[in-house]
Amino acid sequence: VQLQASGGGLAQAGGSLRLSCVASISILRIGVMGWYRQTPGPQRELVASMSAGGSTVYSDAVKGRFTIFRDRTKNTVYLQMNRLKPEDTAGYYCFADWDRSTYWGQGTLVTVSS
């Protein structure tokens, strides 16, 4: 599976951004897709994920502000980020769990200014 992520950039606190992740196969064949983020340091934080059946998971830090959704006709999963905070600043990485492996897109940088 190849993943192409886009949509990062600069936003002010309280603003919005939308990330996109296009998969090279039908997203209905993918067990789970979603987004991690990483600030300087070794660990990545799960931000949001969606199963093939449509179930969603959000981190407590973004719950109520971020929404993950998909367009099956475009093989694309989106992350709508509203009410952004400076602490949301990070590299965001799309992932897909498929065929007992995890695949990653390239990171897209989100910077939120106060």
How would you portray this structure in words?
It is built from no helices and 11 strands. By secondary structure, the protein is mostly beta strands. Strands 2, 4, 5, 6, 9, 10 and 11 form a 7-stranded mixed sheet that branches. Strands 1-3-8-7 form a 4-stranded antiparallel sheet, with no helix packed on it. The model has no long low-confidence stretch (mean pLDDT 95). It starts with a strand and ends with a strand.
Give the key terms.
114 residues, mainly beta, seven-stranded mixed β-sheet
Strand content: over 45%
What gap, in angstroms, lies between the N and C termini?
37 Å
Mean pLDDT: 95
Radius of gyration: 13 Å
Number of strands: 11
H/E series: EEEEEEEEEEE
Choose one word for the global shape.
globular
Give me the number of helical elements.
Answer: 0
For the sheet with most strands, the description reads: 7 strands, mixed
Query: What proportion of the residues is helical, as a percent range?
Result: under 10%
Low-confidence segments, ≥5 residues, pLDDT <50? none
SS-based structural class?
mainly beta
Short overview:
The protein is mainly beta and 114 residues long.
Show the helix and strand layout.
Layout: E1 3-6, E2 9-12, E3 17-23, E4 32-38, E5 45-51, E6 56-58, E7 66-71, E8 76-81, E9 90-98, E10 101-104, E11 108-113
